[in-house]
Amino acid sequence: MSQNTKALRVRIKSVTSTMQLTKAMGLVASSKIRRANEAMNKGRDYGTALDNMISALSADRESLKSPYMKQRDSGKTRIIVIAGDRGLAGGYNANVFRLAAQYPDAEFIPIGKRACDRYGKDSVSSENFSFDDAYNLADSLCSDFAEEKFDRLGIISTKYNSMMSQEAFIRWILPLEKSDRTDTAGIVFEPDHLTVLNNVVREYVSGIITVCVRESFASEVAARRMAMDSAGKNAQQMISDLQLEYNRARQGAITQEITEIVAGSGD
Questions:
Q1: Residue 161 is part of which domain span?
Q2: Which position has the higher pLDDT, 203 or 231?
Q3: What is the per-residue pLDDT across 65-115, written as a single tens digit (0 to 9) for each?
Q4: Is residue 246 a part of any domain in this protein?
Q5: What number of CA atoms fall less than 13 Å from residue 125's CA on the CB side?
Q6: Pairwise CA distance, residues 42 & 105, whole Å
Q7: Residue 234 domain-assigned?
Q8: b/e code 15-35 from CB counts within 10 Å (16+ = b)
Q9: Pairing of strands 166-174, 152-160
Q10: Which of 64, 80, 159, 196 could form a disulfide with 155 if both were Cys (CB 3.0 to 4.6 A apart)?
Q11: CA 1 from chain center: how many Å?
């Protein structure tokens, strides 16, 4: 009986340590949430402005002459995969990799240490990914696309719906699609639509990459916060159950000792 109570004490101590760890990780995630959400919201506004600019440029018939508008079908696809730097964020990373698995023939470009580890690339942090990093990546990708080294470019990232809900999705960004906008008559681009489009496409691609990274990081932080809250509640319930079991075992040991003493005194 004493061995049973000792094992229960060790178990309770272990779960308590784990609960303290999850609480600390939850507090760290909480401290990052506000900053991550601010960066995400600013990124969304920037992304909307970029989309409006590209839709205005691509509405012109001359835009079809751009190498970034050409549709090809040689089967060569590149996909940027944005995951987290760490685990313990619920299904955040798993959902991203599950979606990526639907494109087995694609060449993956990972952002985030977990994605880099999975695809065997040099480590690139998603939390510290800068606009300069995005522009350098976009510059290389746009050059390769114009040289017809691949047919289409997509980004797998995570959409932030709320603290409770984040959703992995893919966004295709190259080739650009012709816009059907009809409200661009008053917009003048110098020297012409095609020249401006070809010159701003790198800015557009780098901007969309940055926006997706910012939103993915906000999603990761929120997912980790919720996962740690859930883990903390589960740990607390487990401690309560173990404590009850320990008390019963301890009471049983005391009862057995009393019984043995009484039996011994009778002899």
A1: 33-223
A2: 203
A3: 999 999 998 889 999 999 999 888 889 999 999 999 999 999 999 999 999
A4: no
A5: 4
A6: 34
A7: no
A8: beebbeebbebbeebeebeee
A9: antiparallel
A10: 80
A11: 48
CA-to-CA distance for 224 and 88, rounded, in angstroms? 6
Q: Which two tokens stand for residue 13?
A: 């101590």
- Torsion angle of alpha carbons 91, 97, 99, 105, nearest 10°? -170
pTM score: 0.85
71-101: burial string, b at 16+ Cβ within 10 Å, e else:
eeeeeebbbbbbbbbbebbbebbebbbebbe
Residue 16 domain flag: no
Higher per-residue pLDDT: 161 or 244: 161
Short-list 216, 117, 208, 237, CA closest to 158? 216
**3-state percent helix, strand, coil for the chain, nearest multiple of 5:** 65, 10, 25
Total domain count, the chain:
1
Query: Which pair of tokens denotes residue 3?
Result: 């061995």
How far is residue 70's CA from residue 156's CA, in Å, rounded to a whole number?
22
Q: Is the pLDDT of residue 267 over 60?
A: no
Residue 218 forms part of a structural domain: yes
CATH number for the domain harbouring residue 85: 3.40.1380.10
Residue 54 has pLDDT above 70, yes or no: yes
What is the SS3 assignment for 78-144? EEEEECCCCCCECEHHHHHHHHHCCCCCCEEEEECHHHHHHHCCCCCCCCCCCHHHHHHHHHHHHHH
